[in-house]
Structures are given as C-alpha cells and as structure tokens.
Amino acid sequence: MRVDKGWTAPLAEEIINALLKKKLIELKGAKGKVADVLNEIILDEFNVEDRLNKEVRELLKKYDTEIEKGRIDYQKLFELTKRKLVRERNIIL
Is 38 in contact with 12 (CB distance < 8 Å)? Predict the structure, then answer.
C-alpha cells in the first residue's frame, strides 16, 4: 500500500495522541520530538519494500543476457527472488 509521505507526520501525531489518551504511554520528552522520531520510523518502514525491490533489481543484473534472450522471464524471476529474500530475512511487507 502506498501512502503519501505528507500523511506520516499527522499519522505519527494521531498515534501518540491516542496512546496518551488511553494512558498507554508517558512521555519523557517533548511531544513534538517524539512525533518526529515516530514519523521517521514510519517512513523507514514504508521504505522497506522499496529498498528490497532495488536490491532484487541489482541481483538480477547478473542475468541480463539470459533475460534479453528470452530464456528467463524477468517478472517471474523478480517475484521469486523477492519472495525468497522476504522469507530468509523475515520481512513483513
């Protein structure tokens, strides 16, 4: 799922507000600072799949000639490689 990066800062604030309201957390720092850190965490998590896709593309460069000759289906190989890395690294997408 793609989320516009402009939504992550308000999302982080809403999460903090909800947790504070339910008294599930107690802040020891400024609320804005905590929201900034949470925003960075959310952005990093959203970028996991992008980084994985980039890594898979780099790995598949080794097979450029076979792919160009039609011996290997790039999309199928891409999906298989991606699934293998997700499984090996216990990545949640």
Answer: yes
- 58-83 confidence digits (pLDDT tens): 999 988 888 888 878 889 999 999 99
pTM: 0.66
Give the single-character DSSP code of 73.
-
Distance CA 18, CA 20 (A): 5
Measure the CA–CA gap between 58 and 66, rounded to whole angstroms: 15
What is the per-residue pLDDT across 18-56, written as a single tens digit (0 to 9) for each? 999 999 999 998 999 999 999 999 999 888 999 999 999
Residue 41: strand, helix, or coil: helix
Buried b (16+ CB within 10 A) or exposed e, 14-46: ebbeeeeeeeeeeeeeeeeebbeebbeebeeee
